[in-house]
Amino acid sequence: MNAQMFLAGRTQFGPGVVSKVGELAKSLRAERAVLVTDGSMERLGVADRVEKLIHEAGVECCVFSGVEAEPSVETTDAVAELAREHDCQLVVGLGGGSCLDVAKAVSVLITNMGSAAQYQGMNLVKERGVPKILIPTTAGTGSEVTFTAVLIRKSDGFKGGINDEKLFSDYNLLDPELTLSMPPEVTAATGMDALTHALEAYTGRAASVFSDIFAEEALRRIGRYLRVATWNGKDLHARSEMLLASYFGGVALANAGVGACHSLAYPLGSVFGVGHGMANALLVPYVTAHNALAAPEKYAQAAALMGFGGDGLSLRDQAFICADGLEELVEDLGLPRTFKDLKRRKIIKEEISVDLLPELATKAMAVARPMENNPRFMTEESCRNLYREAME
Fold first, then answer.
1. Which long-range contacts (CB under 8 A, 24 or more apart) does 314-318 make?
2. What residues pair up with 329 in beta bridges, in sequence order?
3. Secondary structure letter of residue 338 according to DSSP
4. Cα gap 41→137, rounded to integer Å
5. What is the 8-class DSSP label of residue 383?
6. Are 133 and 173 spatial neighbours (Cβ–Cβ below 8 Å)?
7. What is the dihedral of CA 375, 158, 284, 359, to 10 degrees?
8. In whole angstroms, what is the distance from residue 312 CA to residue 25 CA?
């Protein structure tokens, strides 16, 4: 058995640790920083608070608060230009995975120049970026501990990641108090994103003894606390456990990758604007049922970790319990379960018709690395079939 382990930067966890951001910025000997965030963090006053903490440490700080829910190459390039103009020596990412992904990309664009589009792919970044401090405010993407920044090119609708170890963070501040303001739908969707990371890393071809440890811890916490965090959002203990689960899922992802669910979810984001976590939540029960026979022991164990039951059943039936349990969980969280639900709830403007499935399948297969890591061999036909199942 051969295995290796990656782990990003130094991580501090606990209520109130966001107050350490100024101290860390100063320790990195930065004179000027750029804070990358979004409008929600600005409206809630969190961005102002973090900016003030950085200023009080003697570090100048400019703020970009225009990161989109599905971040683009064009926005990333604009932030990088702002950072270069101000000669920023530090990037601070504050928000959900979109903000953290943009922050990671900006850190390397400051030193590598050019457009983010030039670096979408594997190991294309030549020079190390400036230091970065990442502060997640959602419990889902685990972006603070991965080496990927997923961006959409508005020019052609392509959605792909900059994947390079140079994107690993220097410091992570995991403060569960910052997640208390998440509304139920965001809590549910980001939590299902974390679940999908952990499940696909756990069942994928690249899974190892190292990644399994983190995936199992993530799945156990999510099964126990996601419903609570969604419907009782002021429960700090549940929020803390979900933030840890997101982090652990991110570690598993960084070391073992993800699978077909992610590849299938990308076109829903790039073509229809469906949020990544919501797309994963919708698709993961169908993908799990498709994959169950290819890795029955892992799916059976995942079902047990998440508390879905199955004692006394055959290994095959226990594996399929995982898909059934996920379907029930998505329903309990009030998230869309079909493409028709997306249209009915006005998440998408136009209905996803059968005629569009070949195009979506082709785009999904183009996201090759997750497809290759999937436990069951995938083809365009199998993608079309899974999309068809998800229609109704």
1. 316/292
2. none
3. S
4. 9
5. H
6. yes
7. -90
8. 54
Instruction: Please give the full DSSP string across 215-238, using - where no structure is assigned.
Output: HHHHHHHHHHHHHHHHHSTT-HHH
**β-strands 10-13, 121-122: how paired?**
unpaired
Q: Could you give the CA distance from residue 144 to residue 135 in angstroms, rounded to a whole number?
A: 7
Cα separation, 42 vs 142, in Å, equals 22
Residue pair 231/184 in contact (Cβ under 8 Å)? The answer is yes
Q: Which residue has the tokens 């320790």?
A: 27
Q: Do residues 288 and 199 make contact, with C-beta atoms less than 8 angstroms apart?
A: yes
**What pLDDT digit, counting tens, does each position of 208-260 carry?**
999 999 999 999 999 999 999 999 999 999 999 999 999 999 999 999 999 99
Cβ–Cβ < 8 Å for 194, 218: yes
Question: What residues contact 201, with CB distance under 8 A and at least 6 apart?
Answer: 207, 211, 214, 215, 249, 252, 253, 255, 256, 257, 258
Q: Euclidean distance between the first and final Cα of the chain, in Å?
A: 43
Residue given tokens 């501090």 in the structure block: 12
* Segments in the chain forming alpha helices (H): 21-27, 39-43, 46-56, 73-85, 97-112, 184-203, 209-231, 236-256, 260-272, 276-291, 296-305, 315-332, 339-344, 357-366, 368-373, 380-391
Q: Read off the pTM.
A: 0.95
The DSSP result for 93-126, as a single string, is EEESHHHHHHHHHHHHHHHH-S-GGGG-EES---
Residues of the chain where predicted confidence (pLDDT) is lower than 70: 1
- The conformation of residue 45, written as its DSSP 8-state character, comes to T
